[in-house]
Design goal:
By secondary structure, the chain is an all-alpha fold. It contains 4 helices and no strands. The termini are far apart. The structure holds copper (II) ion (CU).
């Protein structure tokens, strides 16, 4: 069986957890609250982040050669979602999860940490 590095395992965990948070929040909290939570920019950021997280985790599990490139995109989607969610008062859990995943994905992709 293939051994997954500690770093990659941490990234997979962060991605799956962020996927659950973003998709779950979008489908429950955001849809139920309505208003600013279902504005295209916010809702799209949530779903884009969730999908990128799911894809990144999936490609790492698959050991696809380009998985790390996907992690770089995922980090961007997570940052965008974190910024969107920061603008609303009740999305703190999502912000935290997105920032954690962005860090893990940036590490995985070999990029420097954003300032
Ligand atoms: Cu929301």
């Amino acid at each position: 069986m293939r051994t997954i590095s500690k770093e990659m395992q941490a990234c997979i965990d962060a991605c799956l957890s962020c996927y659950q948070m973003c998709f779950g929040m979008a489908m429950s909290h955001c849809l139920e609250q309505g208003g600013a939570h279902v504005k295209p920019k916010h809702f799209r950021a949530m779903i884009a982040c969730a999908e990128m997280c799911r894809d990144s985790a999936h490609m790492m599990l698959m050991d696809w050669t380009q998985a790390k490139s996907l992690c770089a995109l995922c980090a961007e989607a997570c940052e965008t979602c974190a910024k969107e969610c920061e603008a609303l008062p009740d999305m703190k859990d999502c912000v935290d999860e997105c920032r954690r995943c962005a860090d893990a994905c940036r590490k995985m992709s070999g990029q420097k940490m954003a300032a």
